[in-house]
């Protein structure tokens, strides 16, 4: 276990040694002492006035260590791409792409990134729409080989989109049978633990901002289970439509009945899904300027039938972010980053999105801005380049992946960050006590 806590390019825990007690090795003692130092640093971070978190795709990937590292969450982009390209139903399309369009999915540009593949297809689809390639009028034709080039491209786009939707819904692992928990319960519990720990933040400080590039619903499900209120940009009751003005509002309680005195409630967050969500669709609403609707409890059958799913990366990333709702969400992201004394903590984010990176890097023009990266710097990734800047406003926290080890859970994984770095200011068994109490009350009401 080789932990690091870089401020600039100085590892401030390099010489931290733990006290060896009975039955404890020096390595274990050092690990405890170093993680304790990280926790102490995060206690001060949580007390910062303006604090935001950016959750990347790595946060929703969860592998069971006790089951040969079986994935029960949502795989990150590389394994998703590999799985899609090897589907039997994609074999004919893959051959056509290589032969007719010279698109080889085994190329490094596509092999580990389904987003790049989709963006390329959308560019081609846009080109064919401009040259007005005639489409077949016979709607009974279903074979891929009988479609025009334009129709084949659109067919593959829909095929890849539906694959992503199904993976992000993760319905196979999320289904709960009678008297049996869902397979992905450990991931839900992890998200619950993350948000519960954040609730311990000083209630007099502004509410936390949670930005995420993920399309899944784990954050919403966890907060619903905890009874946490959140603003995600949608307003309404039965029909919820996007309205960015809601991000300027706060949920408050009246403190003095005789006066207009209000206090923002403690269990409240702002949630920004800057790449969209699986339950967003394009829909018309009466007197609605923003034609983005949120579906409650979506199913893959329901989503497949929609003409336009509001989810990245269906359009080209940068161009899509210029239009609503993405332009509104990115504007909010930039606004929060540009606040004085702002701290951004990134978890599970690989810095592979240039548009997000540009906004983060621009924030360094503000002297008080700080960036905390939970990840591992290498010679090839952006985190390594951030380390080379030797800027003390950049903290990089994590653990080096052991050489020659395939399956491992390093400290910078979401699970280890939540359990061992993020401090807990409440009773450790609070969640279990709450669950037991609610279950007992249910039994009394029967």
Write up what this structure looks like:
The chain is α/β, with parallel strands linked by helices and 446 residues long. The protein folds into 2 domains: 3-67 and 181-445, no CATH class; 75-169, no CATH class. 38% of the residues lie in helices and 17% in strands. It contains 16 helices and 18 strands. Strands 2-1-18-17-16-3-6-12-7 form a 9-stranded mixed beta sheet, sandwiched between helices. It starts with a strand and ends with a helix.
Overall tally of structural domains: 2
Secondary structural class: alpha/beta
Chain oligomer state:
single chain
What distance separates the N and C termini?
51 Å
Number of helices: 16
Radius of gyration, whole Å: 24 Å
Strand content: 15-25%
Shape: globular
Helix content class: 25-40%
Please state how the strands of the largest beta sheet are arranged side by side.
2-1-18-17-16-3-6-12-7
Give a brief outline of the structure:
The protein is an alpha/beta fold. It contains 16 helices and 18 strands. Helix 5 runs antiparallel to helix 6, helix 8 packs across helix 9 and helix 8 packs across helix 15.
């Amino acid at each position: 276990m080789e932990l690091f806590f870089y401020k600039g390019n100085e590892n401030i825990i390099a010489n931290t040694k733990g006290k060896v007690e009975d039955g404890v090795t020096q390595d274990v003692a050092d690990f405890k002492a170093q993680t304790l130092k990280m926790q102490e640093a995060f206690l001060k971070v949580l007390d910062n006035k303006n604090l935001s978190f950016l959750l990347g795709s790595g946060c929703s990937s969860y592998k069971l260590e006790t089951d040969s590292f079986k994935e029960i969450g949502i795989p990150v982009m590389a394994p998703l791409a590999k799985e899609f390209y090897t589907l039997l139903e994609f074999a004919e399309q893959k051959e056509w792409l290589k032969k007719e369009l010279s698109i080889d999915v085994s190329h490094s540009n596509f092999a580990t990134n389904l987003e790049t593949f989709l963006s390329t297809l959308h560019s081609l689809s846009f080109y064919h729409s401009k040259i007005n390639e005639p489409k077949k009028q016979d709607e009974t034709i279903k074979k891929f080989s009988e479609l025009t080039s334009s129709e084949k491209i659109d067919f593959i786009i829909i095929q890849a989109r539906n694959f992503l939707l199904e993976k992000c819904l993760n319905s196979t692992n999320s289904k709960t049978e009678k008297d049996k928990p869902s397979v992905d319960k450990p991931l839900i519990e992890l998200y619950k633990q993350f948000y519960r720990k954040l609730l311990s933040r000083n209630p007099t400080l502004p509410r936390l901002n949670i930005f995420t590039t993920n399309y899944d619903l784990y954050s919403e499900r966890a907060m619903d289970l905890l009874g946490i209120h959140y603003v995600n940009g949608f307003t309404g009751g039965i029909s919820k439509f996007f309205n960015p003005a809601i991000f300027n509002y706060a949920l408050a309680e009246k403190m003095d009945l005789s006066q207009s005195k209000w206090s923002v409630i403690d269990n409240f967050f702002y949630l920004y899904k800057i790449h969209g969500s699986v339950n967003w669709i394009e829909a018309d609403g009466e007197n609605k300027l923003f034609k983005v609707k949120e579906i409650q409890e979506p199913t893959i059958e329901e989503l497949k039938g929609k003409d336009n799913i509001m989810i990245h990366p269906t359009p080209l990333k940068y161009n899509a972010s210029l239009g609503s709702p993405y332009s509104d969400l990115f504007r909010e992201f930039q606004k929060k980053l540009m606040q004085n004394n702002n701290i951004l903590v990134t978890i599970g984010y690989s810095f592979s999105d240039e548009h997000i990176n540009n906004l983060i890097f621009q924030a360094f023009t503000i002297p008080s801005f700080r960036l905390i990266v939970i990840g591992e710097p290498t010679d090839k990734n952006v985190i390594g380049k951030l380390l080379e800047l030797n800027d003390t406003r950049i903290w990089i926290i994590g653990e080096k992946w052991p050489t020659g080890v395939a399956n491992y859970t390093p400290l910078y994984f979401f699970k280890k960050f939540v359990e061992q770095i993020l401090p807990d200011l409440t009773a450790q068994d609070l969640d279990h006590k709450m669950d037991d109490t609610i279950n007992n009350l249910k039994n009394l009401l029967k």
